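Dear H.,

Thanks for agreeing to be a second pair of eyes. The structure we're designing against is below in token form, covering all 92 positions.
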């Protein structure tokens, strides 16, 4: 998928959301003038790393539960105002 960067002179190409990806596989490609690309890259890397961390943690919790239900109480310690919503989204 290729998306135009709002107000900037470049584009971002990414694998579709929800698709599993593996180590050393390209996930995103930013094409833009260097300054614009670095600004966008910083935001994307921050967001992607957090979502990946949260999804991995949720998967490990489900695996450790061995079929039992689990509850999320992450809102108490989640980073940012919407951190708990992001965690819930990444875990589903």
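And this is the sequence the design step returned. I haven't edited it by hand at all.
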């Amino acid at each position: 998928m290729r998306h135009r960067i709002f107000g900037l002179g470049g584009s971002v190409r990414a694998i579709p959301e929800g698709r599993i990806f593996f180590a050393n596989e390209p996930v995103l490609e930013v094409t833009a003038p260097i300054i614009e690309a670095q600004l966008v890259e910083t935001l994307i890397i921050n967001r992607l790393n957090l979502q990946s961390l949260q999804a991995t943690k949720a998967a490990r919790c489900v695996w450790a539960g061995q079929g039992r239900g689990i509850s999320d109480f992450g809102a108490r310690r989640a980073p940012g105002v919407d951190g708990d919503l992001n965690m819930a989204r990444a875990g589903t």
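Two observations from my side: The beta strands are 2-4, 11-14, 28-31. The longest helix spans residues 34-65.

Warmly,
E.
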